[in-house]
Model the fold of this input.
Amino acid sequence: MINIHQWLQLFIDQVNQTTLWEWLAVILGIAEVLLAKINNIWLYPTGIAGTVIGIYILMLAGLYAESALSVYYIVMSVYGWVYWIRRRNEPPVKITRATKKEWLITLLIVMIGWVIFYVLLTKFTTSNVPVWDAWVSSTAWAGMWLLARRKLENWIMLNLSNLFAIPLLCYKHLIMFAMLTSILFIVAIFGFFEWRDILKKDQPGESLLTA
Done:
């Protein structure tokens, strides 16, 4: 059983081993979430830049499958960026709640994504946590899709992914990244309430989540 001193030493060791590129990727990742929290379109170019750097780092480390998965985030970010500003002379796409059809698509993304990730992890990697890892990734896929369409519920799906990612990172002794994910988890909670307040102003008569 690892005690507090050992956890602290793991964290210090990881900080000392972190490269400038890794720090830049982390900073851009946090900036992306903060920009999403305030409903700012710059979240997409920021996220794309951070993901590109992340792919470069993963490729250097020989994590080719992880690199390939990051390409999805770039595709969804480009899609979201275009979706938000697709008509220059029209008002920006407003925050809305997911429809029943969009919830169905979200659930399909989670389920199909989980199967795809699980197969890839079990067939082409040495992962000892394929079920867990696949779940974290598939729920993140769904959250990114909802975020691209400016749906309030994107924060719920992204934090569902974060909730499982934190103990997974701890299990892998990636303490620094677990702490960063915890910060993103908290930011996403505030993001949900801020988006909810914006939605209340835009659509005062609509029933909203209160939790």
